[in-house]
Amino acid sequence: MFLINLVLLLLFGRSNVFAKRIPISQQFRDFIHAWLGVVAIAECVILLVADLSALRFDMYRLKSISSIAGLVASISLAVLGVFSLPFIRRHVFELFLSTHLALTVVVILATILYLAPLDFSQPSNILLIVAGSLHIILIAIRIGIPLWNRDHIRVFEENELLKADNTLPELQRLHSGPFKSQPQIQYEKSLLTENYDNYILFASGIGIIAHLGYVEALIERLQKNRDESGIKKISLFWEINEFEPWKYGVVELGALLEKDDDRCKKLTSGPKYTENKHVFRYSMFNIHPLTNMINEDSIGGRQHWRKQPMNVADILQKELKIEKTLVSVCANLAITDTIRNAQGVKKQNFVLHTYGFYPEDVSRYELLTIP
């Protein structure tokens, strides 16, 4: 009975190292789970009757080991059976097996305490010792496997891209709380070695991370040089397909706007101060058809939210009016190819910089030319 219960639990119970390596369909598992509780109740009844029949009561005390073991097993199985009736599920079967295994240990202890000397020639004693040993092995496996399958996160570089390998064992309980992530990317130093009058940055999805540090470095350069670096305009255009996953980027862009605003406030006492010395602005385009975001201009016209796709050709036509322009792109292939096409056809006077990463490669763009 012990071995039958053990096999059923390992194959059809909760996911474990044995069940993963045996090709059993999920439909068959669900079918077995529906009947495991019924099997547990039936076993309770059968074992209860068998144990009660083995009892030999004395007027004052229980003398035989079979009577003691039978009484303990009967009480335990009766309690287990009664409380299992409302919960005919596979977890009932697991509880039943655990109780069955625990009773095995109780019987072994009772045998050692009440039999003197312990006769190892008796088949019943040998079976009890074997069952107890299997119980100890099973407990060791259940404790050892979770300790062995610890979660492991490994970050490595492959083909000039950072990749993460996250290995997690199957958990019965998982708790998470609020946390803040601060992703960083090292932009190319060559982008900061030359000064440009106009910076146009394109991004889609997670590609925004490539530009955040770059914009911050440009604003810090302006602040350090007291606006003598020649930077006239920094424009960032970002396309997303949903708003919720990219709240982090919106918060960071807001922080960059505040950084630019603080820089301007420090110039109020300078001889070259004018009313508007802000250089950074950004536009966010949400292409999700069911988005609740509305078209909005805020923070003095430096933050633009649009519920529409990003028209790359139109943006380039409007923004390429300042000479010595750098266009940096960390977007999907469609946006990148559109900008390359514009540079090749019109021979526009701008320097194009692209990253070897193309997030969210969608197929809704067509190659556009600037009229």
Automatic annotation (TrEMBL):
InterPro entries: Fe3_Rdtase_TM_dom, Ferric/Cupric_Reductase, FNR_nucleotide-bd. It is a multi-pass membrane protein. GO terms for cellular component: plasma membrane. It comes from the Eukaryota. This is Ferric oxidoreductase domain-containing protein. It is found in: Membrane. The keyword Transmembrane helix applies. One of its GO terms (biological process) is copper ion import. Residues 1-19 form the signal peptide. The chain crosses the membrane at residues 35-55, 67-89, 95-115, 127-148, 199-219. Keywords: Ion transport, Membrane, Signal, Transmembrane, Transmembrane helix, Transport. Gene3D superfamilies: Nucleotide-binding domain of ferredoxin-NADP reductase (FNR) module. Residues 3-110 form the Ferric oxidoreductase domain. One of its GO terms (molecular function) is ferric-chelate reductase activity.
